[in-house]
């Protein structure tokens, strides 16, 4: 009761994890799985809106406020939820929502357990500690999902499962993630992927046309990358 906003976000994140899990593992049937997909994204949108309100409590209808809001990771994932909530369900798109909710819910769950007793529920504490120990790997996996969803939205467009605007709006989301002040993993993954691809195509066994194609692709993506202060 002393932290109503934090508690509301904790509950919405747990609900997001629940709905996401029932989409990934359709125990109640495929038809129900699609509805859980939407519920997970709507719950994530609610969480992101609450977090954005917590970060920027005084709303202003101005360009400066919008620019400040776009710097917040919560605004990025509010946009993310709106991009995919009415689209064809894509399993890849639910993993960032699921994993971010799981990480943040785990952090607050530990606070709740500490408030009760330092030794309460040792089995749950052990699970939370293991989750925290793998946080860096989880964040890298999320960043990898964010990157590869860009070509996935283009593929969905040509397969008739996506809208014309979706790739363009998602590109804007990806540039925001690339420029994120709090989460550098998207930039890090882009750099690591570039290094890996360049290493592979520079091998003598790599055909020349594939090397040229990859170098052209790297050059094109580099031109699209936003400038990071």
State the gist of this model.
InterPro entries: PER33/POM33_regulator, TMEM33/Pom33. Helix content is 76%, strand content 0%. With 229 residues, the protein is mainly alpha-helical.
Description:
The chain folds into 2 domains: 1-182, no CATH class; 184-228. It has 10 helices and no strands. The chain has helices at residues 4-24, 30-55, 63-69, 73-84, 91-116, 122-133, 135-158, 166-178, 185-201, 208-224. Helix 2 packs across helix 5 and helix 4 runs antiparallel to helix 8. The longest helix has 26 residues, at 30-55. The radius of gyration is 20 Å and the shape is globular.
Features:
229 residues; 2 domains
Structural class: mainly alpha
Number of DSSP E strands: 0
Strand content: under 5%
Mean pLDDT: 88
Principal-axes shape call? globular
Order of helices and strands: HHHHHHHHHH
Tally of helical segments: 10
Biggest beta sheet summary: none
End-to-end C-alpha gap:
40 Å
Tell me the domain tally: 2
Which stretches are low in confidence, meaning pLDDT under 50 for 5 or more residues running?
none
Q: What Rg do the Cα atoms give?
A: 20 Å
User: What is the helix fraction of residues, given as a range?
Assistant: over 70%
Main location: membrane
GO cellular component, one term: endoplasmic reticulum
Membrane topology: Multi-pass membrane protein
Transmembrane segments: 77-103
Q: How are the SSEs placed, and which strands pair?
A:
Layout: H1 4-24, H2 30-55, H3 63-69, H4 73-84, H5 91-116, H6 122-133, H7 135-158, H8 166-178, H9 185-201, H10 208-224
Family: Belongs to the PER33/POM33 family.
Keywords: Membrane, Transmembrane, Transmembrane helix
Organism: Vireo altiloquus (Black-whiskered vireo)
